[in-house]
UniProtKB/TrEMBL annotation:
InterPro entries: QCT, Quino_amine_DH_bsu. Keywords: Signal. Residues 1-24 form the signal peptide. It comes from the Bacteria. It comes from Nocardia amamiensis. Residues 261-282 are annotated as: Disordered. The keyword Signal applies. This is Glutaminyl-peptide cyclotransferase.
Length: 282
């Protein structure tokens, strides 16, 4: 092989390797910020574990053993419509509305409670293995997190597991509260950080990392715990976001990072747990 042919062959080989490597590599997640559209009061006693909006009804599930509940209130006025306490020692976790059932997870008890969406009365229970963290409903199925970088799909009627997907990046994420968005993606709090991940549930690809740093002002952080609670407002591009024992619920949009902001490190995982023990922050 002469020198020119050798150079051509090497060039083709390098090109194939580069193309192959790019196709196999995970596309980097888009970086996004939060635009606050409005605010509304939030119960500082609510150790928020899940939010869900259905029409003009806001459902909220809270945690802590002996203090867990699920409540329904009027979205526009805040009027409480129904509330159900979860008896000790159950520790309430994520909630979601699936058809005619409101499902509520428990943390380490392996029990999911099926409730009537209007009265919040218990109608049945289902068992599952492992821990329960976040829960959402979309595309005819439930999506559940367990504090790892894996999502589990479940039947919305029986709660039986039907499959799983693991993130293809952000592999140390601890996925917590979930929201199944209208576009088919899943939004997840990455506990205990101020990062929200937007995930393709079919592939496990992280599509965006949303930086919520500073959403709750430092002056309001006394007694507040971590970010937790995401609910899309139906028919809009806006979301409600709050946290455990936060005094405020924020109505927000997620906006692309532009210009010099791209050089910032958004969504960095943090080690600080804001003064609370991991046992109480799930």
């Amino acid at each position: 092989m002469n020198r020119s042919r050798r150079r051509l062959a090497i060039g083709v080989l390098v090109g194939l390797l580069v193309v192959g490597g790019c196709s196999a590599a995970e596309n980097p997640a888009a970086r996004m910020n939060i635009e606050v559209v409005g605010t509304r009061p939030h119960d500082r006693q609510a150790f928020t574990q899940g939010l869900e909006v259905d029409g003009d009804i806001l459902y909220e599930g809270t945690g802590l053993a002996g203090a867990s509940s699920v409540r329904a209130s009027r979205l526009t006025t805040g009027e409480e419509l129904a509330k159900a306490e979860l008896p000790a020692p159950y520790f309430g976790e994520g909630i979601t509305l699936a058809g005619a059932t409101l499902w509520q997870l428990t943390w380490r008890d392996g029990v999911a409670i099926a409730r009537d969406p209007a009265t919040l009365a218990e109608r049945g229970r289902a068992r599952y293995d492992g821990e329960g963290w976040g829960l959402c409903s979309g595309d005819g199925r439930l999506v559940m997190s367990d504090g790892t970088d894996r999502l589990t799909f479940r039947d919305p009627v029986t709660f039986a597991a039907t499959g799983t997907v693991t993130l293809t990046s952000w592999n140390n994420a601890r996925l917590n509260e979930l929201e199944c968005a209208a576009d088919g993606s899943v939004y997840a709090n990455d506990w205990p950080t101020d990062t929200i991940l937007r995930i393709d549930p079919e592939s496990g690809q992280v599509l965006a990392a949303i930086d919520a740093t500073g959403l709750l002002p430092a002056t309001a952080r006394a007694g507040a715990d971590v970010l937790n609670g995401i609910a899309q407002l139906p028919g809009t591009d806006r979301f409600l976001i709050t946290g455990k024992n936060w005094p405020t619920m924020f109505e927000v949009r997620f906006t692309p990072v532009r210009g010099r902001d791209r050089t910032r490190r958004h969504g960095a995982r943090v080690n600080a747990q804001r003064g609370s023990t991991p046992e109480l922050e799930v």
